[in-house]
Design brief:
Blueprint (H helix, E strand, L loop, with lengths): L5 E5 L4 H16 L3 E2 L8 E5 L2 H10 L7 E6 L10 E2 L3 H9 L3 E13 L3 E5 L2 E5 L6 E7 L2 E14 L7 H4 L11 E9 L12 E4 L3 E6 L8 E4 L2 E2 L7 E16 L4 H9 L1
Parallel strand pairs: 1-2, 1-3, 3-4, 4-5, 4-16
Antiparallel strand pairs: 6-7, 6-16, 8-10, 8-14, 9-10, 9-13, 10-11, 11-12, 13-16, 14-15
The structure holds NADP nicotinamide-adenine-dinucleotide phosphate and manganese (II) ion.
The site of NADP nicotinamide-adenine-dinucleotide phosphate (NAP) has 16 residues, from helix 2 and helix 4.
Length: about 270
């Protein structure tokens, strides 16, 4: 971090943030950083808020892999992507000076819709029925047709997304050092015509998961990339794989993913 000096702050404008944010910006400037007004000029991007804001920060700044991202919590609780308190700027300054910072690399997934549009996700891609009716998806791993899913939908998550939506639907929590993606079901129907694995499954970085939407009258599912809905109405084929890019974030040495799991859930 020491050789990266241009810092951009991503935040929602609120009264409370401004006072603490000004203080943080001043401290950064006193310590040789330059606060820039455009993310394009930055090599460090700081998100102010919670995990949801961090997801937006990454998306709005284009999933840069040539930048370091840092999350600053504006509450009295740290979260999965936010390692620092906005109102304690001395923590990050001390860590920089005493070399207590480490860089983490988070796998992200790339979703391609009908061979045309591609999107990146740091938490998950989800697809679900938009009406009170099941829909059908053929699920492929590379060229193998694994199963025909009928139900409410599927969640395909990254390791860091494993503690979010994935966890609510009983997926496993995955160490982000494992480059992989996890597929969890939302209400699968299992009978003699439709059979799915029924348990979450995890695929390695070299696999592509393809979903083919069945044409049985429910071809307009809701698709979401992290906390944003896609405004695509008709879809036939969705391909999901790990991106070649990774998102780099800064962390304190003694704050591992498993510290966060314990702090948040146990
Ligand atoms: P939200 O509905 O306000 O957030 C849901 C909660 O998930 C918030 O407490 C958020 O933390 C937390 N969160 C976000 N990413 C996380 C992660 N990687 N690990 C652990 N917790 C995480 O919406 P949001 O804040 O914009 O977050 C969007 C995410 O919500 C989606 O990407 C999806 O994973 C999740 N989600 C969950 C469900 C569910 O559990 N049934 C349904 C839809 C979406 P903050 O309070 O710090 O923002
Ligand atoms: Mn939120």
């Amino acid at each position: 971090m020491a050789d990266r000096k241009n810092i951009y702050f991503y935040y929602k404008e609120t009264e409370k943030i401004h006072k603490d944010l000004n203080n943080l910006m001043n401290q950064m400037a006193e310590n040789g950083f330059k606060v820039v007004n455009s993310a394009k000029d930055a090599n460090i991007i700081a998100s102010i808020g919670g995990d949801g804001d961090f997801l937006q920060c990454i998306r709005r700044t284009g999933f840069r892999d040539d930048c370091l991202y840092a999350g600053f919590s504006n509450t009295d609780q740290l979260s999965f992507y936010c390692d620092f308190y906005l109102d304690h700027p001395e923590t990050i300054m001390d860590a920089i000076h005493n070399q207590q910072m480490k860089v983490r690399r988070y796998p992200i997934i790339e979703v391609t819709i009908d061979d045309e549009l591609s999107y990146l996700c740091i938490n998950e891609f989800s697809i679900q029925s938009a009406i009170v009716k099941t829909f059908i998806l053929d699920v492929y791993i590379n060229n193998l047709q694994l199963e025909t899913f009928r139900g409410d939908g599927l969640v395909i998550s990254t390791p860091t997304g494993s503690t979010a939506y994935n966890k609510s639907v009983h997926g496993a929590v995955v160490d982000p050092k494992l480059a992989c993606m996890q597929i969890t079901e939302l209400g699968s129907l299992n009978n003699n015509r439709y059979r799915t694995l029924g348990s979450p499954f995890i695929v390695s970085a070299d696999k592509t998961v393809t979903l083919i939407v069945g044409k049985e009258g429910n071809e307009h599912p809701i698709m979401a990339i992290d906390n944003e809905a896609l405004s695509i109405r008709q879809v036939e084929k969705i391909q999901i794989k790990l991106s070649d890019k990774k998102i780099k974030t800064v962390k304190l040495k003694d704050n591992t993913f498993w510290h966060k799991v314990k702090r948040t859930f146990l």
